Amino acid sequence: MKIIFTTLLVCCSLFSYAQKKALEQSDIGLWRTIDDETISPNGDFVMYTLNQGEKDLFLKIKDAKGKLIFEHDRAKNGIFTNDSKYALFTVNAWKDSITELKRKKVKKKDLPKDTLAIYNLASKDIAKIANVKSYKVPEKWSGYVAYVLEDVKQDKKKSKDSLSKDKVKDTIAKGKKKKGPKKVDKDNGYHLVLRNLITQKEDTIKYVTNFTFAKEGKRFGYTTTGETNTTAAGAYVINLENNQTTQVFSSHDQAKYYQLHFSDTGEKLGFIADLDSTKVQERPNALYVWKSGDATAQEIINNTSAPKGYRVSSDGRLSFSKNESKLYFGLATPSILKDTTLIDEEIVNVEVWTYNEPRLYTVQENNVKRDRKQSFQTVLHLDTNAIVQLGSTKYPNANIGDEGNANVALVSNPEPYELARQWTALRASDYALVNVNTGETKKIMTNIAGGMRLSPNAKYVYGYDLIDSTWVSYNINTGKELNLTKGKVFYNELNDTPNYPRSYGVAGWTENDAALLVYDRYDVWSINPDSGTMTKLTNGRASKTQYRYVELDDEARFLDTSSLWLFTTFNEDTKHSGYYAYNAKRKKGEQLVDGPYRYSKPIKALNNTDVIFTKESFTEFPNLRYSNLSFKKDIQISDANPQQKDYNWGTVELVNWTSLDGKPLTGMLVKPENFDPNKKYPMIVNFYEKSSDGLFRHKAPAYGRSTINYSFYASRGYLIFNPDIEYKDGYPGESAYNCLMPGVASLIAKGFVDQDNIGLQGHSWGGYQIAYLVTKTDLFKAVESGAPVPNMISAYGGIRWGTGLSRQFQYEHTQSRIGGTPWEYPMRYIENSPIFYLDKVNTPVLIMHNDADGHVPWYQGIEFFVGLRRLGKPSWLLNYNGEPHWPLQFQNRKDFNIRLAQFFDYYLKGAAKPMWMERGVPAIEKGINQGYELMEN
């Protein structure tokens, strides 16, 4: 009987596998992701949104035991109030309704608007407000919400395409605009409603242009252009403890207000006002400050009284110091004014590029909007109204310390090194300290690449000096500078680029700036910033386990030595991860959880130790889990994709081999769930640089932007091999060959790879390496090369249009790894450029390169394609018009995935050939016929 029972189990298991479906393109849309996950401050509730591709969203609220409390379709952006009594979220119109309205050519302004929903977690009552443009709730207290309404008139007839399912009248009135009261728009302001969440009483304030809650004090501020005979134009403060409203500033209805901001307690309010109603180009801004007890806000500084060569900026962010003794604001240089009398025919549009400008012209052009808004941080001492400029044209970047309370600021200037950055890739700066009280400036560091900053209490300047590969501290009081890790390996041990190695980062400081916690490859070290004395807090190197601190409180300024610290752990060999608790007082730690999973950064409840987190593997979706910081037990909150059990999925494992240069290497091998070692499978090799640390990443079916989906291809009978690549300076293409080819050979030797049906796929840097490989081997049956660089010489002289930066640094010092210029190493550029060896290609090539690519110039893909075309090599180029480095629009991502699967199925599985591969898609048919149809074999 025992034998019979075992046989039955095996048969049932085989039958179960047989019943599982292979994933098809139509199944991809079934998979959901989890977005906007959050836990209530008291830890009693979890809210999240299920996102099903291009379908409608579904918001869910569950309790700490995973019980469903509430759900709503088409809802997103959920937040809990600070007292955990209410959940707020927005509701959209049905997507299919919006689609139909767009099909009917309804204008964007006439489409249904969002609805604000307010859900009472105790009574389970829900209130909905239609046509809400935006809303805010207090950060550190509760009881109110302020929301702004769209300028929407109600139609008498109820539209079937509106939010009728929510019984909300939100149809846009059509027809000609009628004359009437002041128009609601961005200049005149919108109507705002201040709602008491407890009493549900609402007060409407019209024509509001700015509004804000104080962070801690129960104050609400707003500016308005006013309403005739009702509300005067100006700035107002409402004390929500006694509902007293104070007009703190008055002006005409054309005044503009900017940067409205309270101090944390709400006792002080600052804003920028422009009171000029003319169209003068240089706006006469002024800074105003109101203090509790004052009748009105006082003007502090305007363009006339500002320091010479500067003006008050409407773009500089206002912020009060934590102790509320200072207000920080921005000064800007005078605007560059246009001659408005010129007509188009009189304006000269010429670009003048100069060889010694700090920034390349394309960078300047890319940053025009930012440069126009640039401001320099300045401090107002509220007790004396003294103004001290911190940032300036000489030192444009300023960093304030101790939450604005410090008496010094750190300023920096990168301009002397901007020109060289074009080829060095180093962001170097000069640094100085500014006395916040006197403005006295003291230069402290020169040509530091890597970035310096102030410690939490502003006792030290610290950072990583990239060129010296050391952490540095500078004692502000004594002026002593110390290389904390000089001669020790706190830099990237595995750096394989012709550049200075980067650091592993820092965990932060302990209280009172007593110690800086720095990472090496594995461990966390506590370093005394004055003596350099070092203490190792963890013991990861022996087991190749990496420890990293988890910041659970976004506002925490230091690591509290009186409480437990949470670390994540990751083992380099097994790829297992987990959580680790460290007791700073006892200097001992405890592994809380560990295993063959990838764990997320936990999200902690504000008022206790309850957390939500995820764990995932190749087979396990990262569903939300609820626990506390002990992680002794957890409750699964979500079940986003129960349908996965119905599909043939896959498994993943680590594989090892030796490169042609004798280096031990690691990679990932994905197999179908029903893998049979006695069968032979087609295999796709997909790679970039090093990916094996992602062994336990879950890869749900999705229309990806640039790469094959592992679960989709494994489900359909493919093997996927992802090898790690180690690079030798100057020879990136050869490095890829030396690492990848023996890895593929080692798998072929195992007997289950169909060596006649192996494909190769990758994007960007992966796309380049594939272009190189097909000039060196005929092993691969077909390849897809996304956004490749076949010509390193022309690419070296190109521009990364997304940033405006020259591509020179990439070839000399970073990813492309050539190590010098074309005139220093001409043969390296030629030997690593597939364009010079295209006649050696005997492999069909599919290229995807888009004409708005801001990373890799589009002409690189064209060079590759037209060269192959000239030689009569089977090749295709996909260009998604207007898309960047990869297709982002849903329909384009879907199209790419369909074509990619058809391409590999044809070459590697003998499937029918799609029409687009036979005849392309002629320009006259673009957007009409896709050519997916399969030809008869």
Topology:
Blueprint: H1 2-19, E1 33-39, E2 45-51, E3 58-63, E4 68-73, E5 75-80, E6 86-91, H2 95-103, E7 115-120, E8 126-129, E9 132-136, E10 144-149, E11 190-196, E12 202-213, E13 219-224, E14 234-239, E15 244-250, E16 256-262, E17 268-274, E18 285-291, E19 298-302, E20 311-312, E21 319-320, E22 326-332, H3 361-366, H4 368-372, E23 376-381, E24 386-389, E25 397-400, E26 408-413, H5 418-424, E27 428-435, E28 441-449, E29 452-454, E30 460-465, E31 470-475, E32 481-483, E33 506-509, E34 516-519, E35 524-527, E36 534-536, E37 545-549, E38 564-571, E39 577-583, E40 588-595, E41 598-599, E42 603-604, E43 610-616, E44 624-628, E45 635-636, E46 650-658, E47 664-672, E48 681-686, H6 710-715, E49 719-723, H7 732-748, E50 753-763, H8 765-773, E51 782-786, H9 792-796, E52 799-800, E53 805-806, H10 808-812, H11 826-831, E54 845-848, H12 858-870, E55 875-878, H13 890-909, H14 915-919
Parallel strand pairs: 48-49, 48-50, 50-51, 51-54, 54-55
Antiparallel strand pairs: 1-2, 2-3, 3-4, 5-6, 6-7, 7-8, 9-10, 10-11, 11-12, 12-13, 13-14, 14-15, 16-17, 17-18, 18-19, 20-22, 21-22, 22-23, 23-24, 25-26, 26-27, 27-28, 29-30, 30-31, 31-32, 33-34, 34-35, 35-36, 37-38, 38-39, 39-40, 41-43, 42-43, 43-44, 44-45, 46-47, 47-49, 52-53
